From TrEMBL, chain A:
GO MF: ABC-type transporter activity
GO BP annotations listed: response to antibiotic
Protein's name in the database: Transport permease protein
Domain ABC transmembrane type-2: 26-257
Automatic annotation (TrEMBL), chain B:
UniProt entry keywords in alphabetical sequence: Antibiotic resistance, ATP-binding, Cell membrane, Membrane, Nucleotide-binding, Translocase, Transport
Record family assignment: Belongs to the ABC transporter superfamily. Drug exporter-1 (DrugE1) (TC 3.A.1.105) family.
Name listed for the protein in its UniProt record: Daunorubicin resistance protein DrrA family ABC transporter ATP-binding protein
InterPro entries on file: AAA+_ATPase (IPR003593), ABC_transporter-like_ATP-bd (IPR003439), ABC_transporter-like_CS (IPR017871), ABC_transporter_ATP-binding (IPR050763), DrrA (IPR005894), DrrA1/2-like_C (IPR025302), P-loop_NTPase (IPR027417)
GO cellular component, one term: plasma membrane
Major location category of this protein: membrane
Molecular function in Gene Ontology: ATP binding; ATP hydrolysis activity
Compartment(s): Cell membrane
PANTHER family on file: ABC TRANSPORTER ATP-BINDING PROTEIN, DOXORUBICIN RESISTANCE ATP-BINDING PROTEIN DRRA
Natural source organism: Cellulomonas gelida
A Pfam family recorded for this sequence: DrrA1-3_C
């Protein structure tokens, strides 16, 4: 137990550092801007046509359909943040200094994960506000909203660990910002923007078996008060796989890679 | 008293490149040891092993009585490291960097604030403390770097090439800081490729060449290892130089041709012989001085080569480090 308290203090210190970075160099604007552009584009430009494929068949119902996908798109973009901030750290000598100090190893990475998760949550709320202004309404109960918030937080946290791993793996800041790109494509190839039944069969198979479809379906159920079903468990399983996988990978790489190369 | 740092038979290779080929070294508590050697000699690798960043392939290293491999946390709790590369957070201000260290050392709010203020004052960072690091000069950055290392007063401090790339004034300031640290009882291991720096700061010097310690001792002891002292005579004109040079055999002249350097073991007898010869030739010398060998001479005598290393060797070590990183 005694080892936990100091590492918690260290993680909080690292989190403060990360937040200071975020305030000084706000990448959060990008985290918000991209999904908002998608939201406007899909609803006001493609919305009429897209909506026609849905049972109700208009722009307003497409807005209701697409918002969970856009929220997940926001979260998916979040892996980029920790990837960049960790790669940035590794390009400076500061990480080497941390490693020669008697502080918990995981505190350094934990600071990045927590800092970026918080930013992602703020970004998600901002995107949701835009959606509400556009007329999005969810009939969820308080528990539904809390569940949705919890789900998005867990997904963000897991993806941030994966982002941290990308950041340690990358050869520099630029490649670190490119590595998480495929994750941002995933929400587009899920049930977030069009129902999977409308996709070609091979794509449909992919869409139904990748993590973002159960994420989006669970979020929809929580927001619209429909039964959640097995999607919730599949989502949790994916969260554990992504989070633990990212954590193990990040730690392994970090141990090997923090010696500064000349 | 157990030494602050004990190294026994430490070896380290990166791939095929042997960087440390079995080194033994003791540093007594409260003293300054300079690890002197050219680029690629293995200085940084030694510091990395002692500061728990790298594991040795063989041999043992103990710092503050703790084994660097088996008790890395205890070692880290005793040391402070300022590396060759700036280890500061470039996105924070100087003060925030110091606060970060104080927080990580669990100094507590009040004590942390007090210590940070004290270091800002001591390291002359007052004017820039609240400015972003982008505005700092190289010397300021290096001072901040060292201040961060000292926030919680480590008993053993490693300084890896602390003055490389600094202008003469910043270098003198850094020397002063090292002297004060040492006066306060801190054990210091510093690496340097500057012979005068080792001479100036260290109680003992260990000369590292191609992964092997070729000599160690006090600066004076090391200089005594090599013959090669000389008596230097300066004259007013070329005729006097020629006359004395003829009388003394083949004494080498210096570049301007108005001085002679006569090899001497520094004894009174050798000095008297030169004086007698001067009297006999009836030439007035403008000045006479006696030179004991400097560390450049020491290095050459110990290793048989200059304090420079063929490029290939340096590239070898860099390549090896790349390998460790990937």
């Amino acid at each position: 137990m005694s080892a936990i308290a100091p590492s918690l203090t260290d993680a909080t210190t690292m989190l403060r550092r990360n937040i200071r970075h975020a305030v000084r160099y706000p990448i959060i604007t990008y985290l918000i801007a991209l999904p908002v552009v998608f939201l406007l584009l899909f609803v006001y430009v493609f919305g009429g046509t897209m909506g026609a494929g849905l049972p109700a068949g208009d722009t307003a119902s497409y807005l209701q359909y697409v918002v969970p996908g856009v929220l997940l798109l926001t979260v998916a973009g979040g892996a980029t943040g920790p990837a960049i901030s960790v790669a940035q750290d590794l390009s400076e000598g500061i990480i080497t200094r941390f490693r020669t100090m008697n502080i918990s190893r995981s505190a350094v990475l934990m600071g990045h994960v927590l800092g970026n998760t918080i930013q992602l949550m703020i970004a998600t709320v901002a995107v949701l506000l835009v959606a509400l202004l556009m007329g999005f309404r969810a009939p969820a109960s308080v528990w539904g909203w809390l569940g949705a918030a919890g789900l998005l937080t867990l997904i963000s946290y897991a993806l941030c660990w994966l982002g941290v791993a990308f950041g340690v793996y990358a050869r520099g800041v630029e490649s670190a910002s490119n590595l998480p790109m495929p994750i941002m494509i995933l929400p587009l190839l899920s049930s977030g923007f069009v129902p999977t039944e409308s996709m070609p069969s091979w794509m449909q198979w992919f869409a139904e078996h990748q993590p973002f479809t159960p994420f989006i379906e669970t979020l929809r159920s929580l927001l619209f008060g429909t039964p959640v079903g097995s999607d919730a468990w599949i989502s949790l399983a994916w969260i554990v796989v992504i989070g633990v996988g990212g954590w193990l990978w990040a730690r392994r790489l970090y141990e090997r890679k923090t010696l500064r190369t000349p | 008293m157990t030494p602050a740092i004990q190294i026994q038979g430490v070896r380290k290779s990166f791939g095929d490149t042997v960087v440390l080929d079995g080194i033994d070294l003791d540093v007594a508590a409260g003293t300054v040891l300079a690890l002197l050697g050219p680029n690629g000699a293995g200085k940084t690798t030694t510091v990395h092993i002692l500061s728990t960043l790298l594991r040795p392939d063989a041999g043992t290293a103990r710092v503050a009585g703790h084994d660097v491999v088996r008790e890395p946390a205890a070692v880290r709790a005793a040391i402070g490291v300022t590396g060759q590369f700036s280890a500061v957070d470039a996105l924070l201000t100087g003060e925030e960097n110091l606060r970060l260290m104080a927080d990580l050392c669990h100094l507590g709010k009040v004590e942390g604030r007090r210590r940070v203020a004290e270091l800002i004052e001591r390291f002359d960072l007052g004017e820039v403390a609240r400015k972003p690091l982008a505005t700092y000069s190289g010397g300021m950055r290096r001072r901040l770097d060292l201040a961060m290392t000292l926030v919680w007063r480590p008993q053993i401090v490693f300084l890896d090439e602390p003055t490389t790339g600094l202008d003469p004034r910043s270098r003198a300031e850094m020397w002063q800081i090292v002297r004060e640290l040492s006066a306060a009882g801190t054990t210091i291991l510093l690496t340097t490729q500057y012979l005068d720096e080792a001479d100036e700061l260290a109680d003992r010097i260990a000369v590292l060449d191609r992964g092997v310690i070729v000599a160690q001792g006090t600066p004076t002891e090391l200089k005594r290892l090599v013959p090669g002292g000389r008596i230097r005579l300066e004259f007013d004109d070329q005729d006097s130089v020629r006359a004395v040079a003829g009388a003394l055999g083949h004494a080498p002249r210096d570049d301007e041709g108005l001085a002679l350097e006569i090899p001497s073991d520094g004894s009174l007898a050798s000095l008297r012989a030169v004086m007698d010869e001067l009297d006999r030739s009836g030439v007035e010398a403008r000045s006479l001085s006696i030179h004991t060998p400097d560390l450049d001479d020491v290095f050459f005598a110990l290793t048989g080569h200059d304090a420079t290393v063929p490029d290939a060797t340096v590239r070898g070590e860099n390549a090896a480090r790349e390998e460790v990183a990937s």
